[in-house]
Amino acid sequence: MYTLKGAEFQPKHFGWSVDGKVATITLNQPERKNPLTFESYAELRDTFHKLQYADDIKVVVFTGAGGNFCSGGDVHDIIGPLTKMDMGGLLAFTRMTGNLIKEMRNCPQPIIAAVEGVCVGAGAIIAMASDLRYGGEGCKTAFLFVRVGLAGCDMAACAILPRIIGQGRASELLYTGRVMGAEEGQSWGFYNDVTPAGGALDKAREVAGKLASGPTFAHGVTKKCLHQEWNVTIEQALEIEAEAQAICMQTEDFKRAYNAFVAKEKPVFEGN
């Protein structure tokens, strides 16, 4: 079994902790509102790739230190150098950031974003690419690429965001770069729930614990189908889900649920 627990895995560019079956990633440059750098992008990409093979981690919580989620790409470490790159260098960078989102969507573990304070630029993209999002009151989310002269089509924003909040709402945020408040984000479906300020991480961990104690093999199948079925017909989706559900019906967790129901007990899932 490949493991990401213990001292053998210690990322250099973000915090990493494991409690039972739940891992927490913490962007931890609070004095700068947790910006991303070339190095942290790459290490996050590689970590989510490794999570595909980490049988001991069942859910991932993504958060930021110091009351903010993430301020996006660092102005001095990323934006400045980008203005001096040729096309080859720029494409290498944009493909690398896109690969972070690809690895987040491909790893079987549900990813839960716990958002407080500032959540902008690439930080908003990371929250968007997570499976569930919980925001603290007063958090501010903005896809502000247009403010620095760039298009809103960054790291699959034009593909994923409309599926979460709708085409018209996504268009407004991506064209204007304006801030979406916590309550607005909840009413639009971006946030699954809004907590009192400072409570998003506790909420995310509560939900993560529930998911981690559930049929985690089946959760991975759900995530895979949610991702795969974006561009298929209903007929294709029906066949994909028929095959996926038949596989889940072969698991021990399915048998445990049945036996518990017969015994009028709560099932105890083990993820196999």
Explain what this protein looks like in three dimensions.
With 272 residues, this protein is an alpha/beta fold. The chain has two domains: 198 residues, 2-enoyl-CoA Hydratase, Chain A, domain 1, CATH 3.90.226.10; 47 residues, Orthogonal Bundle (Lyase 2-enoyl-coa Hydratase, Chain  A, domain 2), CATH 1.10.12. 47% of the residues lie in helices and 14% in strands. The chain has eleven helices and nine strands. Strands 1-2-3-4-6-9 form a six-stranded mixed β-sheet, with helices on both faces. The chain has a three-stranded mixed β-sheet with strand order 5-7-8. Strand 1 and strand 2 form a beta hairpin. Helix 1 packs parallel to helix 3 and helix 9 packs antiparallel against helix 10. It is globular. 37% of the residues are buried.
The topology string of helices and strands comes to EEHEHHEEHEEHHEHEHHHH
Task: Report the CATH architecture of the largest domain.
Answer: Alpha-Beta Complex
Fraction of residues in helix: 40-55%
What class would the helix/strand composition place it in? alpha/beta
What name goes with the CATH superfamily of the largest domain? Answer: 2-enoyl-CoA Hydratase, Chain A, domain 1
Ends apart, CA distance between termini: 14 Å
What are the low-pLDDT stretches, counting only 5+ consecutive residues below 50? none
The number of helical segments is 11
Q: Proportion of β residues?
A: 5-15%
CATH topology of the largest domain: 2-enoyl-CoA Hydratase, Chain A, domain 1
Quickly name the level 1 CATH class of the largest domain.
Alpha Beta
Beta strands, count: 9
Question: How many structural domains?
Answer: 2
